[in-house]
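Appendix B. Extra example for self-study. Work through it before the problem class; the solution is given directly after the inputs so you can check yourself.
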Amino acid sequence: MRVGLFIPCYINQLYPQVAIATLEVLEKLGVDVYYPSGQTCCGQPLGNSGYEEDAKGACQVFVENFKEYDYIVGPSGSCIYHVKKHFDILEQTPDVIKVRNNAFELCEFIVKVLGKKDLGASFPYKVGLHKSCHGLRGLKLGSCSERMDAHYSTEEDLLAHVKGLELMSLTRKDECCGFGGTFAVFEEAISVKMGRDRIQDHLNNDVEVITGADHSCLMHLEGLVNRKKQPLRVMHIAEILNSSI
Amino acid sequence: MNHAQKAEIFNKDEAKVNWHDKALWYVREKRDTAAHGVKGWEHLRDLASGIKAHVLSNLDEYLITFEKNAQKNGITVHWASNAEEHNKIVNKILADNNAKKVVKSKSMLTEECHLNPYLESKGIEVVDTDLGEYIVQIAKETPSHIVLPAIHKTKEEVDSLFQEHLGTTPSNGNPEYLTHEARKHLRAKFLEADAAITGVNFAIAETGGFVVCTNEGNADMGAHSAKIHIACMGMEKLIPKEAHLGIFLRLLARSATGQPITTYSSHFNKPGPESQMHIVIVDNGRTEQLSREDFRSSLHCIRCGACMNTCPIYRRSGGHSYDATIPGPIGSILSPGKDLTKHSSLPFASTLCGSCSNVCPVKINIHEQLYKWRQLITKDVKQPFIKKTILKMTGKVLSNPKLYGFGGRSVRFILKYAPRFLVYSKLNAWGKARELPKIKNGNFDQWYKEKRKN
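Solution. Structure tokens for the complete assembly:
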């Protein structure tokens, strides 16, 4: 099984530690993982802004980079969702179909494809899980509070096996943080208010570290936390799963 | 002003935003509890969605069947292709009967057609009898929510409004007192009304009858005390059979307010003795929306408002920020079909979180339709020059690994070395309330080249 590691553009440039943790977690699990060097971006920022047509080039580059792999794994629910859902703008060649079918968000890949939940990690902190919308409602990484389905959560399954980690319950289990790509800039007031409200929920429930499977939401929350110098750390779930504190 | 600008103003009063958010979240939670109480809730949603899709695919036949059966019952059926025709028809019915005083229960369709100002210009008095609607009417505002029209007003604000218009004594926002005073005032209006206007929640093709749902009984009070009942309905309100009400009535009130059923679900089938019953069936852009394959299912909507209560953006921007008859997520996919330019900011007033699609009792894929409207708007409506240029350039950069590498290095260089006052200038909307990521070392590409060999 050859796995292509997809590192979203903003993680590559701004959060290399998240990419490193993702790679190391996969290596620890014995996965034969490769990082195609010509990759850029899934095109989501353009698609969500209404410029899907202009994203076709980026989508093609993505397919070219990953078509040879059995699985494509990335530490971002929304980017993977974009590949699976919105690469319908490309001509549906066998390569495009293969890439769309085999793209997985990191947690989902570990739990569903590898069938592992205990990665031997330890992280002795009170953790709050931010369930990012595209992973949750798009990729169905977990049950959604709006739907009357039985409870499940891929990320919670993994965090439950991290030694010392205490998963804190939140008042609003899966409300959006207000990032939303260019929404964060063009609807700045609402975006900031939504983020602040999410952070307050974590603070009210004694969370020390906010985590999640989508670092774009975390970048937004971290930006707010750092501006107000609030007593919270923000870490990608890959960093926690790669911890042995 | 677009949605973002109006929402920014609404957000200046944080205490009010918090109150608005909590009030609506409370309704969302009530809805969750009510839905949990129904075994097979998700199956009910599937059924409702399927029935609506079926009706829309056979709308021509169902409309004709409905008209035929309604006429058999003695109801007069009128057809209006747009708002103007609708208003003229209603006015003509009133004029033919010399009706000068009208009571109206809640109807989003008549809001959409701007019926009140039209009738008032013809010298007719129209009183909205739903309490929330009545509040916004005397405040000379529009509803900010389709189920809770005055949710943007606190009880203290209603108190002063009533003092001004009904001469009530200050009560510190006592809801019982204020409701009682409104009831006294409205009772007189009911008794002297020449005609009653209602909306229609469900029109049943096989019987030619229709159902109106209210919590206050004001539709019944109006329709039974006046000699003329005019029911105004959008042409998508049809369901094939009476038996289907068992699905829709169970979904509607639970989705809307978390009640098992509305206090009154009134079935109107034929006019009473010496009375008239009219139905005005209105198109007003619905046929056009029906022709848009990607947006057709927006016509499934049964106007429960659940998408508004769950929407984190609606809860924090208030209904008036949408500047449309139907605000919130469903309004943001309906309104662009009516006037793309005027409503072009609405599909962007969303993070595409998808909560709206999940609560929708008739399973409209609202967030996916928002995405699709965005693609059309950037093509058909003039976009801000800077936004457009940046995104188009980004497309070029991302399709070229070398340009992308250069772009990435530049961004990291700026974030690492540029002085704070430059990075956090007025042009940087991100940085108004948020820090940018701190750049320490190289990017992952560099790390990988040094540490791993493929």
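Self-check: Chain B has three domains: 1-37+294-383, 54-284, 386-451. If your reasoning did not lead you there, revisit section 3.
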